[in-house]
Structures are given as C-alpha cells and as structure tokens.
C-alpha cells in the first residue's frame, strides 16, 4: 500500500511540474507557431531595356507618366530606335513579357528616371514599382527622360506606380 502512495505522489509531482501555470519566456531557441508569419512579397523580375527614345508625337503629362505595353504595335507607336555605331537595341519579347515605360516632359536638367524598387505579392499577384527622377545640373539643351524595362506576364496583375512614396498611377493588366 505504501508503494502505491509513493507512486501516486511521484506522478502527481511530475504532472504538477510539467503543467506549471507559470508562463515561460521564449529565449529564441524554441519554435512557436504563433511567431511564424509568411512573407508573401518578393522582388519582381525586372529587366531594363535600352536603345529607344520617346517619339516626338508623344507629349507626356506634367509628372511621371507610366505605360504598360503588351504588343509590338503599341510599343512602336510610342518609341523609336536610338541606334548608334556602338550600342545594341534590346528587343522586348511580348510573348512572355510586358514592357513598363516611365517618362516625363522634356527638361533642361540632366534628369534620369530610375527604378528604386519593384516588389510583387506572390499570393495576390499585385505589384508595386517605385521610381525617382533626380534632377542634375542645367544643360543648354532639353531631353525627354525615359526608363524602359520588361516584367513577366503572370496573368491578371494590378501594378501600383509610385514617384518616390507617392502613388502616381495604378494599371491592371488583362488576364
């Protein structure tokens, strides 16, 4: 009878020690499902293209203007080839990629449009592209700044275009 009391007392002590109501602090070595969060955002596959200029018949708006182009005919209506003896002209593949274009009105300042970041939400397929257009020294001639790049065709996508941190345009691609 004494062995049963000792065994019961040992089991009760073990259960009390294992099931302590005192919360235990996480020291970073334990795994907890409560602390796991999936990161759905990733970098967008952007490939800059060069060798083009905005045609004279196109007059961009007062700020950065964005286009999303899905065919050669539309592309050719907006841009001409800027061929020199040394450069190569990048040809967009409209079968698998979309062309993203950013331009602004002509300026006498050595302004270059730059892509700061491009991210895509892998769950919703929505994307964000952040551009900046820093002005440099004043020139005696004007230029019409242009940035061109391609992104993969991934079905219906809503792309938000930002100038710095300000939302400038939102374009949704067809499926």
UniProtKB/TrEMBL annotation:
<protein>
    <submittedName>
        <fullName>Uncharacterized protein</fullName>
    </submittedName>
</protein>
